[in-house]
Amino acid sequence: MARIEPVNEQTLIIYFGDKIDDAIAADVNTAIYQVRDALGDLVTDMIPSYNSMLVGFDLNRTDRFDIIKRIRTALNATTRNVDDDENNVIIEIPVYYGEEVALDMRDVCDKTGLDIESVIQHHSQREYRVYAIGFSPGFAYLGSLDDAIMIPRKSTPRLKVPTGSVGLADNQTAIYPSSTPGGWQIIGRTPLNMVDWESDSLARVNVGNRVKFLPIDKQEFLNQGGIL
């Protein structure tokens, strides 16, 4: 059963588990629709994460005790099948894994004992779930990695990771939508812009989507607008 705790007078957090797990992520994604459908504009904001969801509510129209009761009722109710929505959306992301952009590929190979082609194969042959949208618009946390390429973050983060960089950290992979500091192990770069300013979420991918990486060569990377 989900655990609901207050954060402040007009924000709650709903916990669905304590680990990164596909089943828990599916529960979070379903809850988005259950709460949205049942509570409507009483809810002012919803921020899903790996295993929880932050919910803001209109304090002028309800209070903490009422909203918790409504949320519990919503979570216990049947809702429309979300499998036809975000869970079934597969987004293909082209990635160039060339040495000019794969800044940490050699280190990843050294630490995993794999050659470059094997790292690329392990990374690109898997389908990933979008667990959360993170610290900057469009930064999607994707999981889970093949055990063979699980690797910790860099001990010393870079001051500036190039836009579009694809990285590994622990059991996750992610794409840097903009040039920011970061400690993920960079193994490639996508030519795609991961921020969609015309969408409500600003992100090309949303929580619950599936992501598949497609290896491309240097010329295709440049043809699609990639910058080395």
Automatic annotation (TrEMBL):
Domain named Carboxyltransferase: residues: 2-205
Enzyme Commission designation: 3.5.2.9
InterPro entries: CT_C_D, Cyclophilin-like_dom_sf, PxpB
Enzyme class: hydrolase
Single Gene Ontology MF annotation: 5-oxoprolinase (ATP-hydrolyzing) activity
UniProt KW Cell membrane keyword: no
Keyword line: ATP-binding, Hydrolase, Nucleotide-binding
Record protein name field: 5-oxoprolinase subunit PxpB
Originating gene: pxpB
